[in-house]
Amino acid sequence: MRADRLIAVVLLLQARGRMTAPDLAARLGVSVRTIYRDLDALSTAGVPVYADRGAGGGISLPDGYRLDLTALNREEASALFLSTMPGPLADLGGGHILEAALRKVSAALPAGARHEAEQARQRLHLDPAEWWQTHEPVPHLRVVQEAVWQDRRLRLRYRRRDGSSASRLVDPCGLVAKTGVWYLVAAAVATGDSGDLRVFRVSRVEGDRGDRRDCPPPEGL
Fold it and tell me: What is the reported pTM?
């Protein structure tokens, strides 16, 4: 599938700006020699890839260069449409947005690829939750998500396992969805400094308030 690999090289360079041949080889699971052959093929096809040697060098595309790579093969189209199955994305409120985007993609697909994508969607169901597990209400998930997205400090009213509640001031680092259960990974704040990492079950958050001042995650996370 050399054509797919050549497209992947261009996409990686467009997204990252500059990469070394060993980095590209590691990401694509091929040898460095293969990467150099791919770069020669891209240059022959008119794609302006540049390779700079020495410290700080690497492979790059000109600033602002973009290649129209919207074509999807049948397997990619099927995989993309399967990504709309019920799951964490719906909890975050993004399900209807993805549905709208996929309607636009579907309209642009060739008839054969569109049929296979819809067929895969109708015949395969993906459920991320465990058997017999009840859905946990997460009324404060959106506020927690916004604090994560915007690097804002968050004050939580959190229910412990014994049923008691306590106030927690945290620097959110990320959200994790595990078998249908949402967790907040955050650094506990003590005397204004970021402390140890903690994991909070979002369904146990009883109240939340995001600090309006920006608060970046701890270094190294």
Answer: 0.54
CATH number listed for the domain at residues 141-214:
2.30.30
Q: How far apart are CA 30 and CA 33, in angstroms?
A: 8
pLDDT tens sequence across 164-193: 998 989 999 999 888 778 999 999 886 444
Find all residues with CB under 8 Å of 58, minimum gap 6, and list them.
18, 19, 20, 23, 51, 52
Q: Domain ranges for the chain, please list them.
A: 2-60, 74-123, 141-214
Q: Tell me, which fold does domain 2-60 have in CATH?
A: Arc Repressor Mutant, subunit A (1.10.10)
Q: Is 114 exposed, middle or buried (0-12, 13-18, 19+ CB in 10 A)?
A: middle
Contact 79, 49 (CB under 8 A): no
More confident residue, 15 or 211: 15
Token readout for 30 is 């091929």
Full DSSP string of 137-162:
P-TTHHHHHHHHHTTEEEEEEEE-TT
* Residue recorded with tokens 């994305």: 89
Q: What is the pLDDT of residues 93-109, one digit of tens each?
A: 666 666 666 676 676 66
**Alpha carbons within 13 A on the beta-carbon side of 14:** 14
Type of residue at 96 = H
